[in-house]
Design a protein that fits this description.
Largest interface: A-B, 46 and 46 residues
Structural class of chain B: alpha/beta
Largest sheet of chain B: 7 strands, mixed
Shape of chain A: globular
Number of helices of chain A: 12
Radius of gyration of chain A: 20 Å
Number of strands of chain B: 15
Strand content of chain A: 15-25%
CATH topology of the largest domain in chain A: TIM Barrel
Distance between the termini of chain A: 35 Å
Oligomer: heterodimer
Bound molecules: iron/sulfur cluster
Shape of chain B: globular
Helix content of chain A: 25-40%
Chain lengths: 314, 824
């Protein structure tokens, strides 16, 4: 898998909240976790997927007519058992109602796609952020892309869920100055339940990375915590992470308040809606900020991070 | 206003102006603003009544018979200036009423005001109601009807031989002639007004008459003599107007119940108006007062559109600094005076019938301030007054005045940031202009480098070297995509309204589609249609120019435009140092994208032959919705940094520019293009058939230089890249590139920095102009209810930006309800 060419499911430009300056985000498809609040559901599988955005469909019937496998029972209704992912339907759908998630791209393709933004990266102190999904699922590819970007003077940042084989991604880490490391549920069993895997490896990885940074042999590590009411915002969870970060000597983190942007994507992919999720209130956010602050940890919002203030490196 | 971030008064004026936050408005400014915002609009009938009074008076009848038209016209203006009733409103620091009402347009007999009679039965019930008493309404009707043949428009086209042009003119399909209403659109020589006073042109005119010679020694001819007389008559009128205001202020000061503080202010105003604009201004207050008085005169002379102030941060700087040094003024006080000045600009609105409002809605007249920029040598001259004007505008955030900022490679960071901070308040001001590309285009249009660097914006985006240019900068709006429809149908619309046009050809007789064998043939036919449309339009404008010279000369404008005194000529006679007529195209992206797609599906991919494809367009895609949606969604478009698509937009623009550059106006001035459309893209859209890019018959066209709504798939960086990639060297009249952002995307310091970098990069790549709307929750709510009125709003969705209208209603709700965490 390490040498596999990943599928990219989106590239977004003019992003201001995923690292310093103006950035472009490259979304890698595939993720080892299954957090139930995930907003990018299309990032889970490593294989391509087909979404149906019913509100765009104009009922033209092209999909039914053109599918060589007769996989459509009616417009937009695709039976994935018959589908062999030839993408005739998405290519022919005039409205974009049928959309393909996941396109295989080479490093060269991506370089060309990103290149027009380079001058803006340089003047704004921005760059490219690898996100997903989980870019570390593709260590060779992501390090090759990072190397190419770096060679042209472009800053690369990584957003990761933290579940990876550290040894395999060393070459990628060498190209980074900064990485955002997502932490979620402190308790191992609960993490397994809510995120689909345990967190021992994640915690160990965070520890090792921070040690590397302290030894100046790795990128600066910046933790981020999603705030999902009743899942990650409990007192114990905050206390647990605060203690953990303090032990590592980290006095800052970004909190990312949950927002149900992924809800409609679930529908597009034919998944049932998730229940019991809501946006945290301002008061909840403030009390979490206070809790962390009491533990000596400064809390930031995405895009508002004062990285320089904490960046103790060269 | 309480939502403005307040900052404590500072002893260091530079800090006060440059640091984050805006100086809060004083109670006075808040009160004037509140009053203006709650005042209903009306129509002022004082000007037409005074003009009629003059025409009927003995002196008027006499002068009509014996005087040269220049002098007769100037005497009429003098009569208006000196007989209008002065009105001074509570608290204002800059005085001088625009009209007899608090907020109203003037009725210009000589211009296009008569269109308002279309709404005469329901003035109070229009979308934008106009409040008139029953008697006033009758009076308006009488004035309109009795004078209906006295306008330049009527003079120009109401002749049997010009009937077909009259139809074209009236139906506004191919073009919409604004010049019929008035020329307006000027950045006068306020430097002269402030530093030398009208005394200078007055004495100059006297000297010419005494010597009987121009400054260059050549003998005055009869017209030139009369021109100089008209200058003197006009300035006498302006002086009288200022004196009347001074008298009024003096009287008010003596009224019982006037506070001591107000008394001092009124006496100060009286003193100022007895001195300026005839004598040079001595203080900052007098400087602004002088500008305002001459601005009033310009408004009363021709018509209200686009009369702009120019670079007041440069012109007034010596006075400001001197006042500060003398201890007469503080930055806070100067900001208050400037805010009071800005609020004066809210007293005028244009007079449009609802029919015409389709083309120009928004009720703006765009009295523009231009801030920042360079001197003649290219050195940065942004200063504390540039920043102070931003503070003053932040206190009012009203539709008027328009605020424009010049950006060049040496623009100081604080000023760029302050400009964006003002934008973040959501008033869509200031617009940003890129000096590099603009100066290049002005030089291309014949200006010296030094004069080009002294440019100021006329109205919304148009260009002048301030005080040196006569640019009929909004002469006509031109419907560019319609030329493609005509090219695909031998010069006829696909479906003319049967009774008026039937299958009438009003474009060029280009070959039938069966004879268009290659894309080059199509391009050739398109170019012919553009040329033909421009030729017809130039004819109509030339008749208007003739009419202007005969009955609507503009002595105030001539006094305010360098060149006129040297040549002894009114601006309408070609007196201006630089002279242009500018035509704006609407629907550029529609034209470009349509050319691209037509070439692709017909000539490259051969999916249809041209006749089949044109039949589909003619049928308005009936039964081919899938094809229409595919064309609209699945093909490269201008605005995505795709060079092939952008090249076609350049080709469409070049066809337009070529046609214009081939013409000179009757004053000898060059025709030049610009790309902005007010709201004309809506009006023109209604009369334009289906287009190859999937746009349906009758729907809105693209706006200015912006991509088609919803076709900007890669976000703002690609839009700016595409726009900057176009060669704008010959686009002397600039363009409008409109971008919309959700407040959440660009708020705070992160957003501010990002926008600064985004636009710095854009201007470095050759961008001329960009205007930004920062929208808040209320606007988003409105956009959800009525998506078609709010196209192209960029919002932040889960880590990226999307177009609001592209989102499902429930997602739209989510964004609207998004708690202000500043993230998605
Ligand atoms: S991807 Fe191919 S096989 Fe699958 S539904 Fe679409 S057309 Fe049919
Ligand atoms: S092809 Fe697309 S638009 Fe047409 S019916 Fe299928 S999903 Fe709907």
């Amino acid at each position: 898998m390490g040498s596999a060419k990943p599928l990219i499911f989106s590239i977004q430009h003019f992003c201001l909240h995923d690292g310093p300056g103006i950035r472009s985000l490259v979304f890698f498809k595939g993720c080892p976790l299954r957090c139930i609040w995930c907003q990018n559901i299309e990032s889970w599988k490593q294989e391509p997927e087909i979404a149906f955005k019913a509100h765009l469909c104009i009922n033209c019937g092209r999909c039914v007519e053109k599918c060589p496998e007769h996989a459509f029972s009616e417009v937009g209704k695709r039976n994935s058992r018959f589908c062999r992912y030839c993408f005739t339907c998405t290519d022919n759908c005039p409205s974009g109602a049928l959309t393909r998630f996941g396109v295989s791209k080479s490093v060269e393709d991506l370089m060309e796609e990103l290149r027009p933004e380079f001058s803006l990266f340089k003047t704004s102190g921005g760059g490219v952020t690898f996100t997903g999904g989980e870019p570390t699922l593709y260590p060779e590819f992501s390090s090759a892309l990072a190397k190419n970007l770096h060679a042209e003077g472009i800053d690369v940042t990584l957003e990761t869920c933290g579940l990876f084989n550290l040894e395999k991604i060393r070459p990628l880490l060498q190209e980074l100055q900064l990485m955002f490391f997502d932490i979620k549920v402190f308790d191992e069993a609960r993490h397994r339940k809510l995120c689909g895997a345990g967190n021992t490896d994640i915690k160990n990885n965070l520890k090792s990375l921070v040690n590397d940074w302290n030894k100046k042999s790795g990128p600066f590590v910046w933790p981020r915590l999603p705030i999902v009411p009743d899942m990650t915002d409990g007192y114990d969870n905050i206390k647990g992470w605060a203690g953990f970060l303090n032990d590592l000597g980290i006095s800052f983190l970004t909190i990312v308040p949950y927002h149900p942007m992924g809800a409609n994507k679930r529908r597009w992919l034919g998944l049932p809606p998730t229940h019991n999720l809501r946006i945290p209130t301002d008061e909840e956010i403030h009390s979490i900020e206070r809790l962390f602050l009491n533990e000596g940890i400064k809390v930031y919002k995405p895009g508002g991070e004062n990285i320089k203030e904490h960046y103790t490196g060269a | 206003m309480s939502s403005l971030p307040h900052i404590a008064p500072s002893t260091n004026p530079e800090n006060l102006i440059q640091s984050e936050g805006f100086i809060p408005p004083t109670p006075r400014i808040t009160a004037i603003r509140t009053e203006l915002l709650s005042t209903p609009y009306s129509i002022c009938l004082e000007r037409p009544k005074l003009l009629e009074e003059f025409w009927r008076s003995k002196k008027g009848r006499q002068s009509a018979k014996t005087e040269h038209p220049f002098v007769h016209r100037a005497l009429g203006l003098q009569y208006i200036f000196s007989h209008r009733k002065p009105r001074i409103y509570d608290g204002e620091l800059i005085i001088g009423n625009m009209t007899s009402k608090r907020i109203a347009p003037n009725y210009y007999i000589e211009g296009g005001s008569i269109n308002i009679l279309e709404d005469i039965t329901h003035l109070g019930k229009r979308t934008i109601p106009l409040k008139l008493t029953g008697r006033e309404t009758l009076e308006l009707l009488r004035i309109g009807l009795q004078n209906s043949f006295k306008s330049v428009g009527a003079k120009a086209v109401l002749r049997p031989s010009r009937f077909s042009y009259f139809l074209d003119f009236f139906r506004a399909k191919r073009y919409f002639v604004t010049e019929e209403a008035g020329i307006g659109h000027q950045v006068g020589n306020y430097r002269m007004v402030v530093q030398e006073g009208l005394l200078y042109p007055y004495e100059e005119a006297q000297q010419r008459l005494t010597e009987g010679k121009l400054a260059d020694g050549s003998l005055l001819n009869a017209d030139q003599k009369e021109f100089f007389r008209s200058v003197i008559v006009t300035i006498d009128g302006i002086r009288k107007m200022a004196e009347n205001l001074a008298d009024e202020a003096g009287e008010l000061a003596l009224q019982p119940g006037v506070t001591e503080k107000r008394k001092v202010e009124l006496l100060e105003s009286a003193k100022a108006c007895r001195h300026v604009p005839f004598e040079p201004a001595r203080t900052y207050l007098e400087g602004l007062q002088a500008v305002w008085l001459v601005h009033m005169a310009l408004n009363l002379e021709d018509f209200e559109q686009g009369l702009s102030f120019g670079r007041l941060d440069q012109i007034l700087l010596p006075l400001y600094r001197n006042d500060i040094v003398q201890g007469r003024l503080t930055p806070e006080l100067a900001t208050e005076i400037t805010a009071s000045f800005c609020l004066k600009a809210c007293e005028t609105i244009p007079l449009y019938s609802e029919r015409i409002d389709k083309f120009y809605s928004g009720n703006g007249v765009a009295q523009a301030l231009t801030l920042g920029g360079t001197d003649a040598e290219g050195n940065d001259v942004t200063n504390e007054l540039s920043g102070l004007f931003l503070h003053a505008y932040a206190q009012v955030l009203t539709r008027e005045p328009a605020v424009h900022v010049r950006i060049h490679p040496l623009t100081p960071d604080w000023f760029f940031h302050k400009s964006i901070e003002l934008l973040q308040l959501g008033s869509s001001r200031p617009s940003l202009f890129g000096d590099t590309a603009i100066v290049r285009a002005l030089e291309e249009a014949g200006m010296t480098k030094a004069h080009a660097r002294d440019y100021a914006v006329i109205g919304c985006v148009e260009m002048a070297s301030q005080g040196r240019t006569y640019n009929s900068s909004d002469a006509t709006l031109f419907n560019l995509p319609l030329c493609l429809e005509l090219a695909l149908n031998e010069g006829k619309k696909f479906h003319g309204k049967a009774r008026i046009e039937g299958p009438r050809r009003f474009g060029a007789p280009t070959p039938p589609v069966s004879a268009l064998k290659t894309f080059d043939d199509v391009m050739e036919a398109f170019r012919s249609q553009v040329l033909h449309g421009i030729d017809d339009m130039v004819k109509v404008i030339s008749w208007l120019e003739e009419a202007y010279r005969a009955i609507r000369t503009t002595p105030v404008n001539s006094i305010m435009t360098q060149g006129c005194l040297d040549k002894g000529k009114d601006v309408t006679w070609g007196g201006g140092l630089y002279d242009y007529t500018s035509i704006q195209a609407a629907g550029l992206a529609d034209a470009g994208d349509s050319l691209y797609i037509l070439n692709k599906v017909v000539f490259e991919d051969k999916r249809f032959n041209l006749e089949e494809f044109v039949r589909i367009l003619r049928d308005n895609f009936r039964g081919r919705e899938d094809l229409r949606v595919e064309l609209a969604n699945k093909y490269p478009r201008y605005g995505n940094g795709n060079s092939a698509a952008d090249r076609m937009t350049q080709l469409a623009a070049d066809a337009f520019a070529d046609a214009l550059w081939a013409h000179k106006n009757t004053r000898g001035g060059q025709y030049v293009p610009g790309f902005y459309s007010m709201t004309c893209h809506v009006g023109f859209g209604k009369v334009t058939g289906a287009l190859p890019n999937g746009r349906l018959n009758g729907t809105r066209l693209s706006n200015g230089l912006a991509p088609i709504d919803g076709s900007e798939r890669l976000g703002p960086t690609a839009v700016l890249r595409s726009a900057a990639s176009l060669d704008s060297k010959r686009w002397m009249n600039c363009y409008a590139l409109n971008m919309k952002f959700d407040k959440q995307v660009v708020q705070g310091e992160t957003g501010r920095k990002a926008l600064v970098h985004l636009f710095k990069n854009y201007f470095a790549q050759g961008g001329m102009q960009v205007q930004v709307n920062v929208l808040d929750t209320e606007t988003l709510k409105a956009a959800k209810k009525d998506p078609s009125s709010y196209p192209g709003i960029v919002v932040r969705v889960a880590g990226y930006c999307a177009y609001f209208n592209d989102l499902q209603p429930d997602v739209q709700d989510e964004i609207i309800e998004r708690t202000p965490h500043g993230i998605g």
